[in-house]
Amino acid sequence: MNALCFTPARELASLIRRREVSCIEVLEAHLAQIDALNPKLNAIVTRTDDAARAEARALDSKLARGEPTGLLAGLPVAHKDLELTKGVRTTFGSPLFRDFVPDEDALVVSRMKAAGAITVGKTNTPEFGAGSQTFNTVFGATLNPWDTTRTCGGSSGGAAVALAAGMVPLADGTDLGGSLRNPASFCNVVGFRGSPGRVPARPAMNASFPLAITGPMARSVSDTAFFLAAIAGPDPRSPLSIHEPGDAFLAPLERDFRGARVAWSRTLGGLPFEPEVLRTLETSALPALATLGCDVEAADPDLHDADEIFEVLRAWHFEAMHGEKLRQHRAKLKQTVIWNIEEGLRLTGPQVGRAEIKRTQLFHRMAKFFERFDFLVCPVAQVLPFDVKTEYPMEIDGHVLHSYIEWMKSCCVISATTLPALSVPAGFSRGGLPVGLQIVGRFRDDFGVLQFGHAFEQAAGASVRRPPVLAG
User: Fold this and answer.
1) Among residues 156, 179, 220, 463, which one is catalytic?
2) Which sign, positive or negative, has the C-alpha torsion 411, 224, 442, 188?
3) What pTM did the predictor assign?
4) What's the CATH fold of domain 3-471?
5) Is-catalytic flag, 179?
6) Tens of pLDDT along 58-102?
């Protein structure tokens, strides 16, 4: 294993800028890591080795001439297979798009390229990003590097695994109901669901929809903020775009959190959890918060309509995005996608209207909650990583579940608030499986959440541990 594959992204970018290591050397180290581990894990499903080598050599020439380069210059990256990549196959995890090659880049991809990042390929995702279990009929399942019999989560599962296994230092992802946070928790990496519009979405058929966002993943909070600096910032073509420039996230993350008011919500008001998830957080995360000097209080936000809001708006969105596919290609869609589209077809206008009104009311209740607290902390996932052959859990601690999204409520209800939320490594179960802590902040306080996550990460110390798959 080449040490470059686990050098922090900030440090690696600095080494490249100072020409202490070449772009091609960094790239070859990561391609070798992909060669060694991807056959065992199936994280990267389309590779672009030749183009990547050409880009690396061109960047090395620019650096030799003393020409300016971007923030991410020379860093190998991978793009989720939901993001359009010009000239590179983009399947959305669907047999309908098995051979689809776009003629444009998604905005997040073009910003990464403009910052000098080098694309090594596409990361696996469930069909149309539906569900927090990464498998599809095009590429199969992606396996968890902490236990290859278990799921890596999803839908940004390929990205999380590629990061955990040292295949790339940075990877983009998306999040509707937990797709950045859940796989980060399952794979012991960091996933950040920023405020809607923090990373503008383009192209987007439903550009004003606030629940689906694009965001950064990395192995540390520091690298996540560094990455966000390159991909955040306004775009006049995106109606939700936030005007704050991305380079605001290059400011120092260090901050004193003594006396910070932190709400610990053990079950988010009564959701079912596997006992081992809660035990791990109570024995690892809470002591880490105490070492920071936080004033931690057990308190649940009022999320009583969040389920309905999320489920109605998700179903409406699924029908809007995929209804025509159901009408024309039903036999080629997986059953959970069909179910979610049909849930959207059954909605009435008044149902959607009520969900939107309740979303406004939820937003105001959360604002009131954050008058009392600086941050909310809670579990990311309700379960530990489960058998990869299981499509989704049917029960949690004796509570029967009724849909493929119900086991993800600990993330879904937070999505409904549209507040920034971070998944950061917090500890390990007694069986050695990662467990993440979810940190939720005030409206658009993305930087504050990253600062708190950075401090917690240092105190908890879980992010430095590497998965067993690296041992061979």
Assistant:
1) 179
2) positive
3) 0.98
4) Amidase signature (AS) enzymes (3.90.1300)
5) yes
6) 999 999 999 999 999 999 999 999 999 999 999 999 999 999 999
